[in-house]
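Bumping my old thread because nobody answered last time. Still need a sequence for this structure:
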């Protein structure tokens, strides 16, 4: 193994400016450029920024010789904010790789899809699926419209963490509908764990990959929940390493990426599990 394996290619979107990292934008931009030229660059997705950061981004890129900055934009206020972000990004030296849009309170699935379709953008749109009774209808609407889903897997308070049963149901629904998804927040480590500082039980991104593979195999939601709850790091890593190439590709086509406020943490922890070459982490040794 000499490079980034297929299961990890483009897996980690760089969400450095979001909590808990909260890196200043002026530090996050050059750090992202370093990540994208490092030996492990194939692991790293775009720099994820809130739509409100674009005004501050412009002066940082003025005269920058690094070329277009790869970004994805979040619009927590909904499609109207996304429209403004698209217009602002068009005037910047950025390469837009995606939009992540929240569903405004009270909106129905049909209202949402009409508004997202109205953006008329060619970049992938991930809609953050609300954790309420609208989820089935919104997942179905995303399947019909060709848009993607985004699932919140954690946050700064305990209530933002879905339990394994809830996340398993979300994954099963997306896979059954043929809706690719990304995950955001709380995936600080490869394998399920309890954070010693907060006491929050956190999902592992390798657990999520295995649960996605199981959903594609048609296994019941209870099996997916068991995979999400597994804390045996050696066992989880061995199962990821043993996935055949076709199943790995299918699982990653369904689970496209997750946002992490630290690129180096998943990098070094995957190396510790024997899933990445140690040489890729030498600058952090």
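Sorry it took so long. Here it is:
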């Amino acid at each position: 193994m000499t490079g980034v394996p297929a299961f990890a290619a483009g897996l980690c979107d760089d969400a450095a400016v979001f909590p808990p990292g909260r890196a200043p934008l002026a530090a996050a931009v050059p750090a992202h450029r370093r990540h994208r030229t490092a030996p492990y660059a194939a692991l790293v997705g775009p720099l994820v920024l809130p739509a409100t950061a674009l005004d501050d981004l412009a002066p940082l890129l003025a005269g920058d010789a690094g070329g277009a900055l790869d970004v994805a934009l979040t619009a927590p206020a909904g499609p109207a904010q996304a429209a403004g972000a698209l217009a602002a990004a068009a005037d910047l030296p950025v390469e837009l790789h995606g939009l992540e849009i929240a569903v405004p309170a009270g909106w129905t699935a049909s209202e949402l899809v009409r508004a997202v379709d109205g953006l008329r953008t060619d970049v992938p749109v991930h809609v953050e699926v609300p954790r309420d009774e609208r989820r089935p209808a919104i997942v179905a609407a995303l399947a019909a419209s060709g848009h993607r889903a985004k699932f919140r897997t954690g946050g700064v308070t305990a209530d933002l963490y879905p339990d394994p049963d809830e996340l398993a149901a979300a994954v099963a629904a997306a896979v059954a509908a043929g809706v690719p998804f990304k995950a955001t927040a709380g995936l600080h480590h490869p394998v399920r764990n309890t954070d010693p500082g907060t006491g929050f039980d956190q999902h592992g991104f390798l657990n999520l990959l295995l649960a996605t593979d199981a959903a594609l195999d048609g296994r019941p939601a209870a099996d997916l929940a068991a995979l999400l709850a597994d804390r045996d790091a050696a066992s989880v890593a061995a199962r990821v390493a043993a996935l055949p190439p076709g199943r790995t590709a299918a699982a990653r086509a369904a689970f496209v990426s997750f946002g992490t406020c630290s690129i180096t943490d998943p990098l070094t922890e995957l190396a510790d599990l024997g899933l990445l070459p140690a040489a890729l982490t030498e600058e952090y040794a």
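The first strand starts at residue 12 and ends at 14. Let me know if any region looks off to you.
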